[in-house]
Amino acid sequence: MTGYVYMTASQMRGIIYIGVTNDLARRIPEHKEGNGAWFTARYGVQRLVWYEEHFDMRDAIQREKSLKRWRRQWKIDLIEKINPEWHELLRGLDW
């Protein structure tokens, strides 16, 4: 089963949330509607700024756990490597 690891942010270089899902097209709108994790609802962390697809959900879960242990600056660098302006990527996905 395919899995996605993703990062949402409150704003550019703001609060970052890391999550994992098997359906990114469903999960991100849930965050935007306030039905995602309590953390994203409380802190307004709704802008999809980075994601990575894995062909095995177990790999996605392992990657999520690894990223959560990273230093904040490493996460910022990873985001800015593909999305230097921290644009909302939701519209850029093909679904």
In short:
The chain has 4 helices and 3 strands. It has 95 residues and is α+β, with helices and mostly antiparallel strands. Strands 2-1-3 form a 3-stranded antiparallel β-sheet, with helices on both faces.
Describe the structure.
Strands 2-1-3 form a three-stranded antiparallel β-sheet, with helices on both faces. Strand 1 (3-9) and strand 2 form a beta hairpin. It is built from four helices and three strands; from the N terminus they run ββααβαα. The model has no long low-confidence stretch (mean pLDDT 93). It is 41% helix and 22% strand. The protein has a single domain (3-92), classed as 3-Layer(aba) Sandwich (GIY-YIG endonuclease). With 95 residues, it is α+β, with helices and mostly antiparallel strands.
CATH architecture: 3-Layer(aba) Sandwich
| Major sheet characteristics | 3 strands, antiparallel
- Helix run count: 4
CATH level 1 name: Alpha Beta
- State the end-to-end CA separation: 17 Å
- Give start-end ranges of low-pLDDT stretches: none
Beta-strand segment tally: 3
Q: What fold name stands as the CATH topology?
A: GIY-YIG endonuclease
Give the SSE order as H and E letters: EEHHEHH
Spell out the blueprint of helices and strands:
Elements: E1 3-9, E2 16-21, H1 24-32, H2 38-43, E3 47-54, H3 57-69, H4 72-82
Antiparallel strand pairs: 1-2, 1-3
Notable features of this structure?
95 residues; single chain; GIY-YIG endonuclease; 22% strand; three-stranded antiparallel β-sheet; alpha+beta; 41% helix
